[in-house]
Amino acid sequence: MSHHQGFADSLLAVQPVCPPGLTAWNRSDPGRRFGVYRNNVLVSLIDALADTCPVTQALVGEAFFRGMAAVFARTNPPHSPVMAHYGEGFAEFIQGFPAAAGLPYLADVARLEMLRVQAYHAADAASVSPAALALLLSTPERLPGARFALHPSLRHMDTPYAVVSLWAAHQGEDVGTALAALDTARQESALVIRVGLDVEIHRIATGTAAFIRHLDDGLGLADAAGRAMAADPTFVLADALGLLVGAGAITAITTQ
Amino acid sequence: MTFSPMLVDANPALPSRGGVGLKPEHFREILAVAPDIGFFEVHAENYMVDGGPFHHYLSRIRENHCLSIHGVGLSIGGESPLDEEHLDRLARLLDRYQPESFSEHLAWASHGGAFLNDLLPVPYTAATLARVCAHVDRVQDRLGRRMLLENPATYVEFASSSLPETGFIAEVVRRTGCGLLLDVNNVYVACVNHHRDPQAYIRALPLDAVGQIHLAGFAGDIDAAGDPLLIDSHGSPVAQVVWDLYAFALDLLGPTPTLIERDNDIPAFPVLLAEAQRAEAIMSRAQAGRQRVVCA
To answer: What SS3 class is residue A165?
Structure first.
């Protein structure tokens, strides 16, 4: 085993262990000194997850969250020095974390918070101009086949729980009242997108979520709208388009 | 290969003034007030994202200020070859922002596909020396510029070390032509932790190669024998004893670009700016002292 492999394993081990070959000027037990590195590594990884997932942490409390994050971090250290991306797999981990089983929505809250960070750092792109949209609307024969490129920061997710509402409840002053009014077993869909410099999270209808997913997959407007309608009879195309245009989500239009 | 000194001066240097780390909490204020400050510093890895507010603000702040880009993830002391993908990301970042200075650490952080997010120590052996020099050569070759290598704050030593830390650093500088980032807080922390004389440590470094100084706060702990163990925490103001060591270093170096580092418990921007100004005041006293010596 290489020197660094032993060092790395000892850093992430649950029990405080010390790799061989370390010394101190006063011949004191180097394990205590090595503990500084163990603490630095684990705390920095837990802090990174806590920064990404503040609502997940608020839902379970700091002590529980940090304990759960420590278990994740020890078995899933980052693979890249770019720490903004750290936490991939954390939501899936929470989903299988026995102690969190009483909060079945917790994993999807973490998933939504990960999407939020991804949107924050995603590439910049200009939205299509009002003139380009007006031109499209003035040529109705081209409308059905029109394809939209969506903003690089745009993310969407469906969840069997009221995850967007749970997240939104933590953004106001009176979190307790907002949470008390919530039925967490309600299915919700989320649209996450950066508008200017701020990430917005919208609760959207099932049909709107389907519409955005199909546009994102490259379907034309009519096909995407048709499938959205089939998924959700209450789908209103004008509302869904209004949401996307309002958020600057459309960055290019192609028509045949 | 050894980096050609001819290219060293192609990049304009940082001014011999105080600078501070650029924090997202301070983006708007800095843009609004355009403070009179020597330079800003960012950690390279924080800006290796595609777009969004970080690049929005850095590109605007860069228009008005000198910039130091400081890497924390290259793992120059690592056992495996450098991560070429990461080096490519770094090259793109430097190309975009054209910083006056690029620096990295004498430490490792990556092994076996895991990134451990800390600056981990290396034994000072001939084998490590060869590897670190090869990595610094590769970095300078890929980036087409000279880098500064920072002396580490360490908590343990290795039984296998056969060179003193200062001798190791001097040899890396000699073999690769890289510059030295003298972290005065790290000197103090490491010297307390390993029972060395910080002034003798500084004197033993290749001071001609120093291109930048770092100052930061440390936290105090004790080791298993009850002796002091200092931790390079970057979470408090620069300690008086580090200011004193800084003044000692400046007497040897003359005015040198000096960064106030703060990564935890980040105070209001004017608090950091005041520490940078304090560094400048010490710099001007050191300058005056040197001139008196010259005239006498």
So the answer is: helix
